[in-house]
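Internal QA ticket QA-208
Title: Verify multi-chain structure generation after dependency bump
Assignee: T.L.

Test input:
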Amino acid sequence: MIPPDPSRIMRIASGYGVSKALLSAVGLGLYTQLATRPMTLGEIVDTFGLKARPAQDFLDLLVSVDLLERDGDGPQARYRNTPATALYLDRSRPEYVGGILDIWERRNYRFWADLTDGLRTGEPQNETKYAGTPFFETMCADPVQLAAFMDAMNGASIRNFQALARAFPFGRYRSMADVGGADALLSRQVAAVHPGIDCVTFDLPLVSEIAQRKIAAAGLANRIKAISGDFFADPLPAADVITMGMILHDWNLDKKKTLIRKAYEALPDGGAFIAIEAFIDDARRSNTFGLFMSLMMLIEFGDAFDCTVAEFCGWCREAGFSRFETIPLEGPSSAVVAYKD
Ligand SMILES: C[S@@+](CC[C@H](N)C(=O)[O-])C[C@H]1O[C@@H](n2cnc3c(N)ncnc32)[C@H](O)[C@@H]1O
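Actual output:
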């Protein structure tokens, strides 16, 4: 019998180094710089203040995994973006998704070193472990962190929101409330595509201020209102459609159920509640990203977790929702629509 090949084990085990090289490249701003022109090793070393020998390994490692292209060999070779890095990792482009990678570079990569502690204790492994301050308070306490968190959410959500704005018939409804709407990204996408719907984006006070600025800059102040509040302490804004993008996964089961119940109460008959998440497949076998996100919630919050579509629909049924539909979005993410008939 031929023994199984260990190479997959080694590839995944060493993947943390490959992942870190990509995060370093985003953190340095390498892809944004290369968008202006291809560069030699010497130019990259000078621009970013790197040491030439390890920098060459760093760049060629990225070439080896198709996250950079290199024209030629030797000192005159020029590094340039691949079509995908040019589109998605150049900070100046609207398609930029690097915000989430940037925050993983600044924060999460280090916290994952303590994953085993998290598995043993069920406790968060982020700043909370040392400072005792919960995640959202840590973010809101520092404008730089908060702006980086908003960029991260944009990177994680933009393609999902664009896909949802196209796939769901928002045009049949008159109002939408995006609960935990961050900088109003979803409202801005929906309002831009569907002229007949008015939107409310609801979030914590400091976040709502950012949303207000983004709405004004997009010229959508007549279509989108930013309302500040606490989705546990305050009633949710009433609307025909209530959306929650990556909200439920931030909380434990009791709080998930509270938010679902509040969404049900805020909707009229005929209304729709849409959760957008990296829902784990019901068999819990294939959505690696959803399972990764769920462990990320352990790292960030301790008792929070991502769920399967079946679990979500079960909790919605308990709250009174009667009919469900799943809309596949970008890659591992989907939107599940729960209808209040
Ligand atoms: C993971 S982000 C999701 C952002 C956005 N919906 C998306 O999918 O990109 C969670 C959002 O919930 C907001 N949030 C957290 N606790 C909240 C609370 N108690 N009341 C209102 N918003 C809250 C955060 O400020 C943040 O914008």
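Spot checks passed. The chain is about 50% helix and 15% strand.
Status: verified.
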